[in-house]
Every structure is written in structure tokens, then in C-alpha cells.
Write a sequence for this structure.
């Protein structure tokens, strides 16, 4: 990467990158650095596994008033200025739900209803699943196509969940296991943050070697590989740090702010 590298598209994960999960807050230093990048001419894209409803408060806190956000690991594209979804990819999650129930006994499930909330098989922690929850019988949870299905394997940890599903093949979908919670996120086949960003990059006419991304979770592999410079947060799993172009400081140490300030001086 050349010393004068200045990205024109900056893709940023939320939880563990912009926002510290320990404090549930975005630091003043990170907010300032994001604003500096936007004022420096970069197209900022928040790229997250969160739903649309979970993303809007972050856009508000950062003061973003233009551009796009990619929610639900790329399944939902949001117009930031209008605070509205402009495209939604969905899939038939019924066979996926059936397979997950076989392998993850005791799991609870949530199917996203974009802009409304989630249909849930049992109550989720409202601090983890954003927006209203509507209790729904399992056989009705995926009656209509959904952009995102969550399974929470209560009482287990993410490593055990990843091992359990390592050899399981789920039809017509893409899955990721959360870094911090025993969650599996399921979205339509072929979708990832990286794939959605590449489509957006092409539509915006930005050249590939002027792209930057930062993330910390298993759903960020494709995004960091996609970017001309993809950086992993210091607390990210070892395999993500190994795959990234560089490892920056942890979210607790404002690692993203340091990196953005270096790029947009």
C-alpha cells in the first residue's frame, strides 16, 4: 500500500469496531475521526450484522446524513439521508430453521421484519436484538421469506456453536457465527458484507484500489478481503487478524480513530 493511500470508500463495522461492546458506546475520538473522514471526501458505509432498526441509532450518533448503510450482513441496503431501506434481499428460511433445530437443541430464533422488528420464538435480550419483538409459533416464523434469521443457542458459547455447525450444510443461505454471543446469523445465499460492498462500489464508480474496511468479527472476513486495505481490530479473533492487511488497536483503545486519523490527516 502506497504511503499516499487515501480511500474513497470507507466501510466500517459497528459492534467491536465503532462501538465498544463493553461500554455500549462510541467514543468521542471515534466520532471525530469518522467526521474527519467524511469531511475528507470519503464515502462512508456502515456495514453491520445489525438490523436496520439497530443501525439507525448508530447513524444518528455518528451524525451521518448521506450515503448508505449495509445491514443484516448485506441483505438490507439503507439510504442514510432518508433513513429508509432501498433494497432487501430475502430467502425461504423454512428448511434452514428445520436443520438448525436438529443440530442446536434448545435454541431460540428471530426472523427480521425490516423496519418493524423481529418475529421471535421466545424473548431475546432487548439489548442484543434491536427493535420490537413479536412472539410467533415456530411453524409461522418463516412462513414468509426473510432477510435475516438468528439462532441463539442459549447456554452455549460461540466456539461450541461454530464447531457444531462446521460440517452442517444449510440450503440456499450464508451463515456466520458471532464473535461475542452464541448466535448464528443466516442471510440469503451469496450475500456477505464484502459482496454487498462490491456491488455498491461498482454502482458508485469508485476504483477498487481506493477502498478501506475495518472489522472485528467472523462476518468481516469477506469485507476485509474485499478492501484494498482491510484492517482487523486488535481484539479480533486470531484468524481474522491473520487474514487482514494489518491489525490496529483495540476498540477500547480507539484503534479505529488512530487508523482513520492517519489516513485523513
Amino acid at each position: 500500500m502506497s504511503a499516499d493511500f487515501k480511500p474513497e470508500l470507507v466501510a466500517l463495522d459497528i459492534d467491536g469496531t465503532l462501538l465498544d461492546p463493553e461500554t455500549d458506546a462510541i467514543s468521542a475520538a471515534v466520532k471525530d475521526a469518522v467526521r474527519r473522514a467524511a469531511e475528507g471526501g470519503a464515502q462512508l458505509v456502515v456495514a453491520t450484522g445489525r438490523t436496520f432498526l439497530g443501525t439507525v441509532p448508530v447513524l444518528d450518533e455518528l451524525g451521518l446524513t448521506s450515503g448508505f448503510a449495509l445491514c443484516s450482513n448485506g441483505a438490507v441496503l439503507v439510504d442514510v439521508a432518508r433513513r429508509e431501506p432501498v433494497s432487501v434481499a430475502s430467502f425461504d428460511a423454512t428448511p434452514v430453521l428445520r436443520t438448525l433445530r436438529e443440530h442446536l437443541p434448545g435454541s431460540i430464533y428471530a426472523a427480521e421484519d425490516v423496519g418493524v422488528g423481529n418475529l421471535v420464538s421466545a424473548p431475546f435480550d432487548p439489548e442484543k436484538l434491536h427493535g420490537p419483538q413479536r412472539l410467533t409459533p415456530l411453524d409461522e416464523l418463516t412462513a414468509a421469506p426473510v432477510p435475516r434469521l438468528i439462532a441463539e443457542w442459549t447456554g452455549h458459547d460461540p466456539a461450541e456453536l461454530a464447531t457444531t455447525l462446521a460440517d452442517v450444510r444449510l440450503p440456499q443461505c450464508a451463515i456466520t457465527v458471532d464473535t461475542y454471543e452464541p448466535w448464528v446469523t443466516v442471510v440469503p445465499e451469496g450475500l456477505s458484507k464484502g459482496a454487498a460492498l462490491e456491488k455498491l462500489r461498482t454502482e458508485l464508480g469508485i476504483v477498487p484500489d481506493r477502498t478501506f474496511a475495518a472489522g472485528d468479527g467472523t462476518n468481516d472476513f469477506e469485507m476485509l478481503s474485499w478492501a484494498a486495505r482491510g484492517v482487523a481490530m486488535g481484539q479480533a479473533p486470531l484468524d481474522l487478524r491473520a487474514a487482514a492487511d494489518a491489525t490496529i488497536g483495540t476498540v477500547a483503545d480507539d484503534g479505529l480513530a488512530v487508523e482513520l486519523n492517519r489516513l485523513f490527516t
Observations:
- The two ends are 17 Å apart (CA to CA).
